[in-house]
Amino acid sequence: MTGGGEASQAIDRRSVLATAAATVAGASGCVKRTRNVMARDPASQVSLRILTMPVDANPYPSRIARELASNLRACGVDASVEPMGPEALYRRVLLDHDFDLYVGQFPRTDWRDPDQLYALCHSVYGGEPGWQNPFGYTNLGLDDRLVAQRTTSGTDRRRAVADVQTHLAENQPFTTLAVPDALGTLRTDRFRRWRGSPIDPLVLLGLEPAGSVTTLSLATTDGRITGNRNPIAAEFRARGTFVDLLYDPLARRVDGVLRPWLASEWELDGDGGRPVAEVTLREDLSWHDGESLTAEDVAFTYEFLADTSLGTAESPIPASRYRGRTSLVDDVTAVDDRTARIRFTDASTVVARRAFTVPLLPEHVWSDRTETAKVAGVEANRTMTEALAWNNPRPVGSGPFAFERAVPSESLRLSRFADHFLRDEPSDLPDRLAGGPAYEELRLTAVGSDDSAVEMVASGDADATVAPLGAAVVPRIGRESALDLVSAPSRAFYHVGYNTRTTPLSNVRFRRVVARLLDRSALVESVFDGYARPAASPLAGTGWYDPEEIPDDAGPGDSFVGTGGELDVEASKAAFVEAGYRYDEGRLLIE
């Protein structure tokens, strides 16, 4: 298998950028939507659509979008907010690239390693669907910095990561606004050992039932898992809680440390250049349907995630959800049933280990899903395989829970997988996980609002909520003596994304002014009710973000054009003029 070669320095860098730029402008399916200055009137008002979710799906991005639109209109821009359901939004932004701006939340993921920024921002991904570079941003200088953080270690890598953040602050392909607290509620009368948020699958696996309790009941406002259980579908997976319960990776981060999971051990050698790993699987692993899980499945998974057509399409069709991690892998070979040899691309050994965390897929289930598929709502020239379009109604994984049944938009039921390796009480994992899960069944109920989710827990119909709650229900939780409020740090930052393929958002000076129209600190109070932290970088709140390492003049930062959340309209207009734009009768013009 060949995958991830785009990181290689052997590729001519300017050819890569030229190819990426051509892909962004052409193959992305946006040619008919790209705003061409030559096709406009000599001077017309700047017009921008801001896509976001409706209030009932998530109130935070909607409120941010409305405030941004209001401030843009005050500056003479014809700005409108277009709310749509999560799936439609993600299709427009991630698959079709049909947007001007959007306000959203980056999916919950592990931001402890800044290599997450590689797929999010590298030019080579600008024309692909998914969360990798949905902005269509192309810049050789940033590419070089992203490669540097991927291939170095120690102080050299820290310097490279700081350079990446400086570049993002200066050029604003997206504007980071805030890192929210993941709020939830739970009750402790039926289950003990709650060691964090119910959103964390390892928290759920470590629970201890009281007495003869055999079923864990959860409430959620995000019912997409009830209708679509495809682990590689980008538009259906905002969080991986249930995917992580159904599917296992080679390694998981447990208590902050990357530990072997399906692997019993690995040897990772990077002294001779590109890293190579010998991975040994645990004994007697099996899939939920009883088939043996072997190193051949490991090799298949990485080949398949790199190209879901398995070479049958004119060009690879990768699974975008795990693109950043699979791009680290060059080749995987099954040495024997329990041993896989993984050869990596140019990367440090620390970064290369990220590839161990993708979910393994059974070859006998997914290998016949390689044909191209046509999906309603997706641009006709956007190639997609059956694997990416499939809703995976009866998932076959190897995780600690197996699928039982589901009612779309209503419920999901999982049962404990008796043959999971945790049942053998492995000594290399914490005691709370060994032998688990300690209950037989997990039931999920989808409800229409945060209030309904809280009511289910308060009435005893659910043990916890498993989707982040809005701050508005916190007082309701406080009034119930049976309920505990759970607040956990989240790395799923809220941001404004710009389609840099279009005019005027292709202009960095324009984006820098737009980035200054929102007051992060005021948003935390007015939108998040204080349950968030202002953030000028996606790495804010991690050990990789140090404001002192980023120059004071590197981009808008917190330099809101106004005071206390109130926009200084005249100063904002002056900023647009300084950026090269002009006004006519109060309208901001593009020429």
UniProtKB/TrEMBL annotation:
Keyword annotations from UniProtKB, A to Z: Signal, Transport
InterPro entries: SBP_5 (IPR039424), SBP_5_dom (IPR000914)
Source organism superkingdom: Archaea
CDD domains listed in its UniProt record: PBP2_NikA_DppA_OppA_like (cd00995)
Span of domain Solute-binding protein family: 258-586
Family, as annotated: Belongs to the bacterial solute-binding protein 5 family.
The protein, known as: ABC transporter substrate-binding protein
UniProt organism field: Halosimplex aquaticum
